[in-house]
Write a structure and sequence with these properties.
Length: 97
């Protein structure tokens, strides 16, 4: 587990894997985004493996991991698809592409 604290961007981190997750969620460069998502998923999966063997697995951390993985899936679906968010926004606003 991570000791906790604040990162330079003002985000409070409680678990070590959250740094990679935050980097992915805050990435603005669409070319870098898939790599950031992959890196976050790797460290989260590694942590899940550690938790499988830990007697004191935190339900708080497991819940946070579940939320993070869901967030990464949404990010992948909306930002890494060929159409991306712009197509979704245009469709919702009634603008034809």
């Amino acid at each position: 587990m991570f000791q906790g604290g604040k990162k330079g961007n003002g985000v409070t981190l409680k678990f070590a894997w959250q740094e990679k997750y935050t980097e992915a969620m805050l990435e603005l460069n669409r070319e870098q985004l898939p790599q950031r998502i992959d890196a976050a998923e790797k460290v989260i999966c590694q942590r899940l493996e550690e938790l499988k063997h830990a007697a004191d697995a935190s339900t708080e951390e497991l819940s946070a991991i579940s939320d993070a993985l869901r967030g990464l899936r949404v990010l992948t679906k909306t930002e890494c698809s060929p159409q991306g968010t712009s197509a979704v926004v245009m469709a919702q606003s009634g603008v034809a592409s």
